[in-house]
Description:
The two termini are 43 Å apart. The protein has nine helices and twelve strands. It folds into two domains: 1-42, no CATH class; 68-251 and 261-324, no CATH class. It is globular and about 80 Å long. The relative contact order is 0.12. The model has no long low-confidence stretch (mean pLDDT 90). The protein has helices at residues 30-40, 50-53, 64-78, 137-145, 161-167, 212-220, 227-248, 280-303, 318-322, and strands spanning 2-8, 17-23, 83-84, 90-94, 103-113, 116-126, 149-150, 155-156, 175-186, 198-211, 259-263, 270-275. Strands 3, 4, 5, 6, 9 and 10 form a six-stranded mixed beta sheet that branches. The protein is an alpha+beta fold. This is Exosome complex exonuclease RRP44 (Trinotate prediction). GO terms for molecular function: 3'-5'-RNA exonuclease activity; endonuclease activity; RNA binding. Pfam families: OB_Dis3, RNB. InterPro entries: Dis3_CSD2 (IPR041505), NA-bd_OB-fold (IPR012340), RNase_II/R (IPR001900), RNR_Ribonuclease (IPR050180).
Amino acid sequence: xxxxxxxxxxxxxxxxxxxxxxxxxxxxxxxxxxxxxxxxxxxxxxxxxxxxxxxxxxxxxxxxxxxxxxxxxxxxxxxxxxxxxxxxxxxxxxxxxxxxxxxxxxxxxxxxxxxxxxxxxxxxxxxxxxxxxxxxxxxxxxxxxxxxxxxxxxxxxxxxxxxxxxxxxxxxxxxxxxxxxxxxxxxxxxxxxxxxxxxxxxxxxxxxxxxxxxxxxxxxxxxxxxxxxxxxxxxxxxxxxxxxxxxxxxxxxxxxxxxxxxxxxxxxxxxxxxxxxxxxxxxxxxxxxxxxxxxxxxxxxxxxxxxxxxxxxxxxxxxxxxxxx
Length: 325
């Protein structure tokens, strides 16, 4: 396979005009095929430039955690608006092998008056903005890449690994900066009017990082009465109410069968293909993230009604609807 660049295609010519860029390699080679996919989709996958790397915090491998903790203590002292939530029982749920943990959750009872229990449901998103300053080479490169791209055997990061898998990854037992949405809810999943949602920058310390299967085992174990088990079961109950209410309002669900490759840890070659199982914990996290998006969207619209970007879908075409029935 080779890579060429199209320079132009005149009206009088049968074929376009272009020039040779590089040889990718043999057809069928896994690395060549992966690189071809990235080229075809115009996904930037080159190593980060020195200008981008120079924007990162100067933290040696031996002192990463200690220095990170001391920096966070200084941030808390300098910024009284950033809430310290490290005392809360927070956890994350992700696919196996996930190192870029960008969201976490918690739930706790905050009030119980004559059986009227009020719970605080917290959704925490890694605060990348603290490290990616506007207008820097790092900011412009992240803008150019747009998103982290996941292939079967590799990940093309939007941000350098020091951020994506370390300083901005909500790893357990490590202090991390986050944006937090705190939502106050009763046992039936209703918003508590006396406790409006709270949006804040925060510092969190996750207690555990679960896979979806591990978290599902905790939900299924009725004998597990540990603090984190009770919390996950309460979040599951709350998100079920939220999901039922969302569906009753006509929410559209688009479920497709996803495949998952089992990769040999030594050769990195695919050895098995399975359908990805959708667990209750997948829906739990999905509903938590949807809730955070809805709450933040409402807050932005209430605060900046003339600047908020609203996503409105056009009506589906009659032909497209016929294919569904």
